[in-house]
Design a protein that fits this description.
about 270 residues, alpha/beta, TIM Barrel, 2 domains, eight-stranded mixed β-sheet, two-stranded antiparallel ribbon, about 15% strand, disordered C terminus, glycerophosphodiester phosphodiesterase, GP_PDE_dom, hydrolase
């Protein structure tokens, strides 16, 4: 798949058409399809009862109305997520039935004022809901619309007994997608999650996301201060080592232009 992308611009609807409607809602994804997106990119987190839902973070006060819901006031808590304390409301403290009562809000209301005018209209989506929307859009448009799935906080959820890769594989199978195919790109900042997708039998393209600094949290959790840093992954040696493990890397613009942090001069991406 990645070789095909070099032939023409490839447009990904990031969280749907998230500049026009609150992110990760049915309305945002339907608009992305209508605008001709080649792929859509959901972020995946889990509920307490093991349902994958579409949220950019597992802390949901910035993109839902949960903070205004009196019945959930007692769920506000402080958790350590990827080594940092965070206070709010977390998907893993709710069942899907409870989360389904919430309504989405625009995270950047001051900037995306038109999108914010739709606050409170749309419920949260499950991953299985999105697969249904994708199937319908593919049938209607008679073109292949790809899925670029980003797995969030995989180590955190695994410690809670919610392995994202297993939940993902089960959802694909239940939706009639088997174990996946070349329509699927799986992304994560944690290389261990990408390895576990292979063990779970999930097919498709695997992409390691590269932060501008620091180290993957799964490696920090296992290796502490000795964890391999993102800079090492994008060295010439690091890219060669990744060539047999993932199909590509995704880096921030700062690593590509303006003296990107940690990239070796002249280094090239190794073929997958």
């Amino acid at each position: 798949m990645l070789r095909d992308l070099a032939e023409r611009p490839f447009v990904i609807g990031h969280r749907g058409a998230s500049g026009y409607r609150p992110e990760h809602t049915e309305a945002a994804y339907l608009m992305a399809f209508a605008l001709g997106a080649d792929a859509i990119e959901p972020d995946l987190v889990a509920t307490r009862d093991g349902v994958l839902v579409l949220r950019h973070e597992n802390e949901i006060s910035g993109t839902t109305d949960v903070a205004s819901r009196a019945e959930f006031a007692s769920r506000r808590t402080t958790r350590e997520v990827d080594g940092r304390p965070l206070t709010g409301w977390f998907t893993e403290d709710f069942t899907w039935a409870e989360l389904s009562t919430l309504r989405a809000t625009e995270r950047l209301g001051g900037i995306r004022q038109h999108s914010a005018s739709f606050d409170g209209r749309y419920p949260i989506l499950r991953f299985r809901d999105l697969l249904g929307l994708l199937d319908a859009a593919t049938d209607e448009s008679r073109r292949i619309i790809r899925l670029v799935a980003e797995f969030k906080h995989a180590t955190h959820f695994a410690a809670l007994g919610l392995p994202l890769e297993e939940l993902f594989a089960a959802e694909l199978s239940a939706a009639g997608w088997g174990r996946g195919d070349d329509r699927i790109v799986s992304e994560s900042f944690e290389p261990g999650l990408l390895d576990r997708l292979v063990l779970a039998g999930v097919r498709g393209t695997r992409v390691l996301l590269i932060e501008d600094r620091g180290a993957p949290y799964d490696l920090v959790a296992s290796d502490g201060s000795a964890a391999k840093r993102y800079d090492a992954f994008v060295s010439e040696r690091g890219l060669l080592e990744l060539g047999g493990i993932v199909h590509g890397v995704s880096v921030g613009k700062g690593r590509l232009v303006g003296g990107g942090r940690g990239a070796e001069a002249g280094a090239e991406v190794a073929p997958a």
